[in-house]
Amino acid sequence: MAARSRTRTLQVVDTEFSADAVEWCPVPGWHSLLACGTYQLQRPSDKAGGESEPPLRVGRLYLYRFSTEEGCAAPLMELQRADAPAILDMKWCHVPVSERPLLGIANARGALELQQLTGSEKSGCALEAVSSLDLGPDRLALSLDWSTGRGESSASSVKVVCSDSKGCVSLLSLCGSAASLHLLSQWKGHEFEAWIAAFDYWNSDVLYSGGDDCRLKGWDVRTGSSCPIFTSRRHSMGVCSIQSNPHREHVLATGSYDEHVLLWDSRHMKQPLADTHVRGGVWRLKWHPSHEPLLLAACMHNDFHILDCRAALDGSSEESEIISSYILHNSLAYGADWSRLSLAGPAPAEGEGEGLAGPTPAEGEGEGLAGPAPVEGEGYLQIHYESPTASFDTALEDVQGRYRPEPLTPAPRSQSSSPPTESSLLATCSFYDHVLHVWRWDCSPA
Fold first, then answer.
1. Which of 136, 149, 340, 396 sits CB 3.0–4.6 Å from 31 for a disulfide?
2. How confident is the model at residue 393, as a pLDDT?
3. C-alpha angle with apex 141: 140 to 147, nearest 5 degrees?
C-alpha cells in the first residue's frame, strides 16, 4: 500500500506585485522568518510625438514571521515591506555573518545586494541593506547561490555565485565583518541567458550553471573558467534550476523548460540517474532540509510537486516518484521552499474538516467531497485528490473565507493504530496572481 500524503493550506497572502521568490531563513534561531520577493513590469505612458520610455522593472521585498502556536488563525505576520528593484532570485546565507542572518538578492538592475537582519526574532527584526555589487551594464541578475549549503562553512570562507541575462557567471566572496562583496572572477558561460548558477555544496571550488542555450555546465575555479569541466546537452530546452543535495555527496538535481527533472551523479555526467517528466517547466528545485531523498519542484504551468528520489538514488528506478502535489495556485509556479520549523500539534486526522461540499472542480482537478450542510462559520471547502502513488486532500477555508490551520472539532484517533507521520511546512508563490501560500504537508508511511 502506498504512503498517504496530505497537504493543508495554512494561509494565503496577496503580494500585490507578481511573486517569484520565497525563502525560509535556514540560520538556527531564526527559522520562523520568511522572505518573499516580487517582480513587476511597469510600462510608462507614451510621450507626445510617439516616443515611449522603456518599461520599469520594480519589486518589493517582504519579511514575515510564522507563528507555531496552536489555534492561530493567521500564523504568518508581516514584519516589513520595502520597495526595491525587481527581484529575480534571493537566498539566505546558511550560516550567520557577523552573528546575523544575511539575505542575498539578485535584482533587475544587474546587481547582487546583501541585506542583513537587525533586531531580534522575539522583539522585532527587519532587513537592512549592507552592500551591493553591480555585475555589469545592461543586464539582469538572474540567480544566486551560497557556498554554505551544508551549513558548515565559516563566515570567513563564504562565497556567492551569480548568473545574469548576458550569459555570464560571476564568483564573489565576502570580505570582512561588514559583509562587503568582492568580485573574484566573471566569465561568459552561456550564449544566451544564464538562468541559474549553483555551488557543489560538497566542494565549493566546483560550480554548475544552466542557460537558455540548453546547456548544463560544470566549472572548477581552480583550473580557470576558459573551459568547463563538462557540458551536458541532455536537457532539450533552457536549463533554469540546479541544486546540489546537501545530505548526499555527488547528487545533483536539475530542471528545465523541457518539463523534466534530472538526477545526476556528478562524477558521471554523461547520463542522468533518473528522468522524471513533471509536465511543467521546472523553475526551482529544493532538497528537503533534513530528509535526503525528498525534492520540491516548482513546475510553472503545472503547480508544485514533491518527489521521492529514494529509488532513483538507489539505482532501482530510472524515474523519481511524485508523492504529493499542491495545485491551489492559479498562475505560474515560481518560488518554493521548505521550512526548518517543527510544526506544533499532531497532523490532521483523516476525514477532519470534511463538512462541506466542494465546488465542481475543473477538468483534471479531482472530485469534490460531498457532506452535510455546514453550520455557519464552521464549514470547510475541501477538495480530495487521488493519484496512482498517493492520496492527498486540502482544506481551503471556512464559509466566511477565513483560512484555518486546523478544524474546530478534531476527529478522535487511535494512537496505537496510527503510523508515525512526518510533517513539513512549506511556502510557495505564483506569478501573475501575485499570491503567497503557506501550507503543511503530512506523510504517513505505508
1. 340
2. 41
3. 170
Report the C-alpha gap between 111 and 160 in whole angstroms. Answer: 13
Answer yes or no: are the C-beta atoms of 256 and 277 closer than 8 Å: no
DSSP code for 446:
-
Residue with cell 511597469: 42
* Alpha-helical runs (H) found in 265-318: 310-314
Strands 168-175 and 422-430: unpaired
| Beta carbons within 8 Å of 106's beta carbon, 6+ residues apart | 87, 88, 89, 90, 112, 141, 142, 143, 144, 162
Pairing mode of beta strands 159-164, 168-175:
antiparallel
Integer-rounded Cα Rg, in Å, for the chain is 22
DSSP type of residue 154? -
Query: Which has the closest alpha carbon to 107: 128, 129, 136, 84?
Result: 84
Rounded Cα distance between 229 and 28, Å, is 35
Is residue 396 within 8 A of residue 383, CB to CB? The reply is yes
- What pTM was estimated for this model as a whole? 0.85
Strands 304-308 and 367-368: unpaired
d(CA 186, CA 168): 7
Instruction: Tell me what pLDDT residue 2 has.
Output: 61
- Strand order from edge to edge, sheet including 274-277: 239-244, 251-256, 260-265, 274-277
Is the Cα torsion angle 422, 423, 427, 432 positive or negative in sign? positive
Q: Which of 272, 266, 329, 274 is nearest to 298 (CA)?
A: 329
Q: How many whole angstroms separate alpha carbon 166 and alpha carbon 137?
A: 10
Q: What percentage of the chain reaches a pLDDT higher than 70?
A: 79
Q: 28-74 pLDDT, tens per residue?
A: 999 999 999 999 999 876 555 566 788 899 999 999 999 998 878 89
Pull the grid cell for residue 300. Answer: 510553472
Provide the 3-class DSSP secondary structure of residue 311. helix
